[in-house]
Amino acid sequence: MSRPRFLQAAWIVIVIIAISSVLIAVPAYAGTSESKPAVTRIIWDSYYYGGVPEGQVPGQWQPFASIDSDREGAKAGEELWLRAKLPYQNNSTNQLMVYSYVVKPYEISLLVDGKPVFASDKLLPPGFISWKIVAYEAGASDQVLLARLSPHHNLEKGFEVWLGGTSDLALKLMRTEAPMWAGAIVLALLCAISFVLYLLYRSQVLFIYFAVFFASIAIDLTVLWGGWQYAIRPESLMTWGSVIHLNWYIGHASGILVTHAIVGTKGSKWIRNLGYAVMFYGIVALAGWLLFGERVQLLFYQLFYEYISPGLLLVLIVVLFRALKRRRDAEIKVFAIGNVLFVGGLAFGRAVSGQFGLFPSTQTLLTSQHALAQISWTFIGFGGALCCLGIIIIMRLLRMTRLHSTNMALQKVNGELQNANEKLSRIDDIRSNMYSEVSHELNTPITAIKGYVQLMLNGTIPPGETRYLQVIHDKTLVMERMVDDMLEIARLENKHIKFDYELLPFSEFFEHLCSKVQLDMLEQGFVFIWTPLQDESERSGRSAAIYADPMRVEQVVVNMLSNARKFTPAGGVIQVEAKIDESEAMKEKVIIRISDSGHGIIKEEQEHIFERYYRGQAAKTSEVTGTGLGLTICREIMSAHLGEIGLESSSDFGSTFYICFPLRFVDLREQEEAGEK
Predict the structure, then answer these.
(1) What is the pLDDT of residue 236?
(2) CA-CA distance, 160 to 149, in Å (whole number)?
(3) Residue 333 three-state SS
(4) Long-range contacts made by residues 134-138, C-beta under 8 angstroms, separation at least 24?
(5) 490 or 288: whose pLDDT is higher?
(6) Residues 6+ positions from 526 with CB-CB distance below 8 Å
(7) Segments in 459-505 forming alpha helices (H)
(8) Is 657 helix (H, G, I), strand (E, B) or coil?
(9) Contact 86, 41 (CB under 8 A)
(10) 630 CB contacts (<8 Å, ≥6 apart)?
(11) How many C-beta neighbours within 10 Å does residue 330 have?
(12) pTM of the entire predicted model
């Protein structure tokens, strides 16, 4: 997947999180309010505090509305009895669904008209929500439902009983858990995204912390409500619950590590160590349960959730506040907003249920009725915090993408700099080679001239001897040509040469040029073969032409033929042919190919032969004169004509160069009339 599409997918996930957080925030019992008579929550009308002999029920009852003010009664006994009326149902058998959120263990018993219908079993460690559906036989009129809670002071989070048919209660359970499952799926997606990002950016350890954190919270949402318990054998629930306890500790630890990765500095390694300490605490709690039993695990659980967890939250708030004072970049601001949402939802939920502050306070049954509202408000804040974490992932990903793009640009620049350095190095080598070659080439004729002049001055040879004067003249011409080449390449590169362009009929020009060269080639002992241009366009009354400076075109062709002659042994074959290339529509070209039967150019030298002052090994070993400017001059002339020049092929049997000009067509009749005039 490309990075832009990945970013789009990540934004979609964030939107899904926002929607899911809203769904999760809806109170769990909102879908089953009294406006839906299929499922009804039992409303208690009276209560009784105190112990009752086995098989008996309380005889004295107090109005349920006064239970909060009955502090003395709450301390008097270890049992709490509740009473309510069961409305008459047409069905012969009805269902009751018992809801309980166990933080500290307590027993629940239900009786209908004095007959026991439910007794809770201790199957899970503390910290889980449990649902249990039980059946009872409906009577001919309203019935009395009694609930016995022992010990009642352990009731903190929530206890409710719902009345309805089996299918209606199951539907309520599904509606209650659906937002949690949706949230778990979204968190699993975020976990996968974070893990993939960690694989892409190994330096960003924050992504692996996010992956662990999201995975832990996804598991928490999956197991928070009781539906999963029906897929596990009852005898295995305690083991699974203890393992999930370890996951809770890991979730807290990874949350601390996320905080360190976002706001941490060099001097805040203690925050990271605090996260590792929480993880170690969870391992010790699990080991304590395995070695010493459930009581040790309960001790660790209550110690952590009642005291350590709120303390950690306060510490992280202080750390975040100090980080905001040091720097206020967008990432820390978003993280701060997420923490404010989470703490705000938690505090507001506690306020709704009668608790203020972060530390627990005494809870009664009335305040416990609002436990679901507290959970929901906590989820509102937590859902907002997750959205902020998702935004941080996007921000970090965008930053990594920009950094990756910058690195790619830097690598490109580094590559260009490396190429430039290599080119400068080659230029330096060429310059050194130029000094060596030019000094050598100039020194040879100068030495000859100096020698002959010295002999004439000494009287060794007669002054004015024609033969020696001719040698001096020839050597002078060689030096003059070398100097002219150096001046010409400088003028060509600086655009100081003016070209006299004209529309040049190519066939006539090419034949005239080859005819002029042919005699010279034969005199020097070479086999010269040239093929005239086959101009098919002449049949339609047109003639091929090029817009060029004839003197410069001749200079290029003659220079190329001169090179071919230098590197071809006597008696060798030199061929020249011209063809029209019509492979590209509206871009016809005329190509001149010059082939020799020399020893070719080695592969390592082929890409350098058009560089200034470059002379191949063959030129040096065969003592061919020159400065290495001929091909460079030809390249500059062809560039001025918008043409091309290059090496087409080379082997041990010779080389083939090509010269390419843009082609134009002229009308033959107009050309003849112009010639007559």
Answers:
(1) 82
(2) 12
(3) helix
(4) 134/95, 134/96, 134/97, 134/98, 134/110, 135/93, 135/94, 135/95, 135/96, 136/93, 136/94, 136/95, 136/96, 136/112, 137/92, 137/93, 137/112, 138/86, 138/88, 138/89, 138/91, 138/92, 138/93, 138/94
(5) 288
(6) 565, 568, 570, 571, 572, 573, 574
(7) 466-493
(8) strand
(9) no
(10) 485, 559, 562, 563
(11) 11
(12) 0.56
Q: How is residue 287 written in tokens?
A: 């080991």
CA pair distance 255, 209, nearest whole angstrom? 8
Cα separation, 155 vs 135, in Å, equals: 24
CA–CA dist 278, 251 (Å, integer): 9
User: What integer pLDDT is reported at residue 361 of this predicted model?
Assistant: 44
At CA 337, angle to CA 8 and CA 257, rounded to 5? 80
Among residues 614, 606, 618, the alpha carbon closest in space to that of 633 is found at: 614
Residues in the chain, overall count: 677
* Structure confidence by residue, pLDDT tens digits, 291-326: 888 788 888 888 888 788 888 888 888 888 888 887
SS3 427: helix
| Torsion angles phi and psi, residue 534, rounded to 5 | -90, 95
Is 675 buried (19+), middle (13-18) or exposed (0-12) by CB count in 10 A?
exposed
Give me the phi and psi of 507, to 5 degrees please: -60, -50
Of the candidates 441, 549, 450, the residue with the CA atom closest to the CA atom of residue 485: 441
Residue 41, pLDDT score = 84
Q: What are phi and psi of 108, to 5 degrees?
A: -125, 130
pLDDT digits (tens, 9 = 90+) for 473-489: 777 877 777 777 777 77
- Report which of 177, 146, 194 is spatially closest to residue 44, judged by C-alpha positions: 146
- Within 293-370, where are the H helices? 294-303, 309-326, 330-352, 365-368
Predicted pLDDT at 668: 60
User: Which residues are paired to 108 by β-bridges?
Assistant: 149
Q: Which of 382, 377, 386 has its CA nearest to residue 348?
A: 377
552: its two tokens = 């410069």
Strand, helix or coil for residue 100: strand
pLDDT at 278: 92
Dist. CA 108–CA 159, nearest whole Å: 9
Angle at Cα 375 formed by Cα 381 and Cα 105, nearest 5°?
A: 140
| Residue type (1 letter), 15 | V
What number of other Cβ atoms are within 10 A of residue 576's Cβ? 24
- CB-based contacts of 104, cutoff 8 Å, min separation 6: 126, 154, 156, 298, 302
| Average pLDDT rounded to a whole number, residues 540-564 | 85
* C-beta separation of 395 from 331 below 8 A: yes
For 648, phi then psi, to 5°, come to -85, -45
Give the pairing type, strands 527-531 and 573-581.
Answer: parallel
Angle value at C-alpha 609, between 607 and 614, nearest 5 degrees: 125
Instruction: Give the C-alpha separation, 357 to 351, whole Å.
Output: 8
pLDDT above 70 for 437: no
- What is the rounded distance in angstroms from the CA atom of residue 613 to the CA atom of residue 603? 18
**647: which 2 tokens?**
């090496």
pLDDT digits 0-9 by tens, 159-209: 888 888 888 888 888 887 887 888 888 888 889 988 988 888 888 888 899
Output the pLDDT for position 211: 92
> For all residues of the chain together, what is the average pLDDT?
79
CB 371 within 8 A of CB 158: yes
Q: What are the helix (H) ranges across 356-370?
A: 365-368
Q: What amino acid occupies position 657?
A: F
Q: What percent of the chain has pLDDT over 90?
A: 8
pLDDT of 359: 42
Kindly report, residue by residue over 591-623, the tens digit of the pLDDT: 999 999 888 888 888 888 887 777 776 666 566
